[in-house]
């Protein structure tokens, strides 16, 4: 006597139903948008930052975001790469995006402006002379020479 569970067609049907039920669950995780990216970031982190600190932080976050995007793209080229990219890099990427969003909000709230890049000498022109640096002392201690430059 065969029971209902031992029939091969029932097993196949149960397996197919299980896979069909599992598919949308996995697709829901893969389709998670970046709109929840602030869930992994501290909203008060940049409250006390000044514009100079925010500018440095924004540059660092942009570099980290680009690095993670590159790593995710590189991982996706291999076998099973999409899964590797999601598992290895997605959480960091979402956290950095959230931090970037809060840093941008603080940037706008503080009415910060970008620091202009340092001027570069024109080609063929004379290079800009750097300021004269003080010479280091050999002994490392205070100098015994007179300050006016005269010799004893």
Your description of this structure?
The protein is mainly alpha-helical and 152 residues long. It has 3 helices and no strands. It has helices at residues 8-30, 51-76, 81-109. The longest helix is centred in the middle third of the chain and has 29 residues, at 81-109. Residues 120-131 have a biased composition (Low complexity). Residues 1-27 form the signal peptide. It comes from Bradyrhizobium aeschynomenes.
Please describe the topology of this protein.
Elements: H1 8-30, H2 51-76, H3 81-109
Helix pairs in contact: 2-3
Organism: Bradyrhizobium aeschynomenes
Keywords: Signal
Protein name: Twin-arginine translocation pathway signal
Number of helices: 3
Kindly provide the radius of gyration, computed on alpha-carbon positions and rounded to a whole number of angstroms: 30 Å
The secondary-structure element order is: HHH
Number of strands: 0
Terminal-residue CA separation:
119 Å
- Oligomeric category: single chain
Mean pLDDT: 73
Helix content: 40-55%
The amount of beta strand, in percent, is under 5%
- Mind summarizing the main beta sheet? none
Catalogue the unreliable spans: 24-32
Broad structural category = mainly alpha
Overall 3D shape: elongated
